[in-house]
Prior knowledge:
Elements: H1 2-6, H2 12-41
Keywords: Membrane, Transmembrane, Transmembrane helix
Transmembrane segments: 18-35
Amino acid sequence: MYDDLKNIRTDNKAIRDFGILIGIILLIIAGILFYKDRASSE
């Protein structure tokens, strides 16, 4: 496991791609929760 952690890429492109992926996932989760809240209030 330690070797896997040592081999993580830390160049700017990899970090940017990871940030974009996390952002998209959080937006999808927020959209689902917002939609559920609107549906339950009607």
